[in-house]
Amino acid sequence: MENRLPRTGSDEMAFGLLSGALAANPFPMLAQMRSQGALVPLPLPIGAGHQTWMITRMEDAVRVLKDQAHFTVNPTSIGMEDIFMANSVDALSDPSDFLFRDAMISVDEPDHRRLRRLVSQAFTPRYIESLRPTIQHMADELLDAVQDQGQMDLVQDFAYPLPINVISEMLGVPHADQPQLRVWSEALARRMPGLGRRDEQSLAHIRAFAAYARQLVVEKRQHPANDLTSQLVQMKEAGDHLSEDELLSMITLLIFAGHETTSNLIGIGTLTLLDHPDQLAKLQADLSLVPAAVEELLRFNGPVTMGAARFATEDLELAGQPINKGDVLLIALSSANRDETQFTQPDELDIVRTLGRHIAFGQGIHICLGAPLARLEGEIAFTTLLKRMPALHLNVPREIITWRLSSNVRGLTALPVAF
Ligand code: HEM
C-alpha cells in the first residue's frame, strides 16, 4: 500500500522513516527529502549537542562510506561519549550494545581490517559457492512441506527459515535452537539508540542470547566441528589476536546480519515481482535473468534502509553544507538507490536494466561481508520458487499486506500466496 505523505517537516520525516510508519513505502518521503537537499537535518536524539543529517544522494553517500579519515563508525574515537555502548553485558542499559561493541561494523581501522581479515579466511567465495547444494536442498525441503497445500505464508514458510537455516548450519547452531534464535534476534533488531523499544522482555531476550553465544563458544572449544564458529575459536586459540569479546561480537553480528536481511530480500522481492506482473513474466520466461533481477530488487526495494551511523571526525563541508565535528550522518541507502542523477527512471523496476552501481550492500571497508552469500541465497530462492510454483499469486487482497521496520531493516510480517 502506498502511504500518504505526512505533512512536510523534518520531525515527521524522522519519525516516519525511523519508526516504521513508512516501512511499506518510504519512497515518496525519500524523494521529497532528495528534493530538499543532499543533506537533510533531522531532529534526532542520537548525539547530544550534535546535529544529525540524513544523506539522500548517491555521490555523498559513497563519499562518506569510503572516507574513513573524516567519518567514523566509532564515536569514542573522536572523544565523544559512547552513546551506543554499555561497558558490560550485565549493565542495566541495553546489553545488545555490549554484544555489538567489538563487532567489525562498530570499529575503524586497524581493528576493522584485523577482524574482517580473520573472518574472510573462512568466508571465502569458494566456501560460499560450496554451499550451493546445501542451500538448494534446504529451499526444496521448505517448498516440499507446503507443495500439496497449494498455499503458504511465504515469509513464515520460506523466506524466513531459509537464511536462518543457512547461517545456523554455517555456524554450527543446532536446528532445535533456531526458533529461539529468531525471538532473540528480533529483540536485538530493536536497538536503534533513542528510538528502539528497550522493554524488559527484549533485554531479557538479549541477555539470553549473550549467554547462548558464550555457551556455543565453550562447546565449540571443547568439541570442534566443521563449522565457522569452530574455525573462529581455533583462530583465537592459534593466537590470531581475536579477544573473547570480539569472538562473541563476531558470532552475534553474523547470526544477526545473516538472517533478517536476506529473509526480507526474498519476501520483499517476491511481493515486488507480484506487483510487477510484466517483470515477473519476463523472469519466468528466462530464469537465467534471476541474478540480474536480484540486483535490481536490491536497488529498487532493498531491505536495509540505512547504513550504520557515521560521525564527522572534524569540521568539514559535505555537499556544500558545513558539518561540525561529532555531527551524525545517516546514510539513506534506499534513497541513494533511487537517485535521479544516477539512474534512468529510478522508480521503475527493470530487471534487465544496465545497472551501474547500487549501494544496497554499502560501500567502502564495511561493505557487506555476506553479500556473496545473500546473492546466492536470493538466486536459489527466486529460481526455485518460480520454477516450482509458476502460478504463484497473492492469496489475500494486496492492501492487507503489512510491513515492519526493526532498526534499519524493512520486511513483511506475512505474505500469503497460493500457487
Ligand atoms: C540482502 C541481504 C543483505 C543486505 C541488504 C545487507 C546489507 C549490508 C549493509 C548495507 C552493510 C554495510 C553497513 C554500513 O556500512 O553501515 C552490511 C554489512 C555487513 N553485513 Fe550485510 N547485508 C545482507 C546480508 C548479510 C549476510 C547474509 C551476512 C552474513 C552472513 C551479512 C553480514 C554482514 C557483516 C558482517 C557486515 C559488516 C561488515 C564490516 O563492517 O566490514 N550481511 N550489510
UniProtKB/TrEMBL annotation:
<keyword id="KW-0408">Iron</keyword>
<comment type="similarity">
    <text>Belongs to the cytochrome P450 family.</text>
</comment>
<dbReference type="InterPro" id="IPR001128">
    <property type="entry name" value="Cyt_P450"/>
</dbReference>
<keyword id="KW-0503">Monooxygenase</keyword>
<keyword id="KW-0560">Oxidoreductase</keyword>
<keyword id="KW-0349">Heme</keyword>
<dbReference type="InterPro" id="IPR036396">
    <property type="entry name" value="Cyt_P450_sf"/>
</dbReference>
<keyword id="KW-0479">Metal-binding</keyword>
<dbReference type="Pfam" id="PF00067">
    <property type="entry name" value="p450"/>
</dbReference>
<protein>
    <submittedName>
        <fullName>Polyketide biosynthesis cytochrome P450 PksS</fullName>
    </submittedName>
</protein>
<dbReference type="InterPro" id="IPR002397">
    <property type="entry name" value="Cyt_P450_B"/>
</dbReference>
<dbReference type="InterPro" id="IPR017972">
    <property type="entry name" value="Cyt_P450_CS"/>
</dbReference>
